[in-house]
Specification:
By secondary structure, the protein is mostly beta strands. It has 2 domains: 34 residues, no CATH class; 84 residues, Jelly Rolls. Helix content is 0%, strand content 34%. The protein contains no helices and 10 strands. It has a 4-stranded antiparallel beta sheet, with no helix packed on it.
Length: 128
């Protein structure tokens, strides 16, 4: 059972380490939970050009420890855990210059994305 600590900013969670809002999830001994396997020593950065049709942005990877996304396109991108992202079937939507970190537990399956309109930008992906 995990306990949560809230720094008073209105956010509270007990389902994983929550970055960016001052919430740290603690184990039953009061120690912060960390991603499985601890620190990582490598990362792969790729860019996927915007597309008005669903495109694979990451293949399944059992060794995945995390994913960070930045949308450099002027149009909203919809990212899906799984195949065939669409305007009605997606996991997260990112506006222009939007940034997202994959929460715990890490999803290690295939990921797809689709933009509302094919623009001139990309989705910058860092996989660790």
């Amino acid at each position: 059972m995990a306990l949560t600590r809230n720094r008073g900013d209105g956010f509270n969670t007990s389902d994983g380490l929550y970055h960016g809002h001052g919430v740290v999830v603690l184990d039953t001994d009061g120690q912060p939970l960390t991603p499985a396997g601890g620190a990582v020593s490598s990362a792969t950065v790729t860019a996927v050009a915007s597309s008005a049709t669903s495109v694979e942005i990451l293949a399944a990877n059992a060794a995945r420890r995390g994913v960070f996304l930045t949308n450099t396109d002027a149009n909203v991108v919809r990212v899906k855990y799984g195949t065939t992202a669409s305007a009605t079937s997606f996991t997260v939507a990112l506006a222009q210059n939007g940034y997202w970190e994959m929460p715990l537990p890490v999803y290690n399956g295939v990921m797809h994305a689709i933009w509302d309109v094919d623009g001139a930008g990309s989705l910058i992906i860092t996989e660790i």
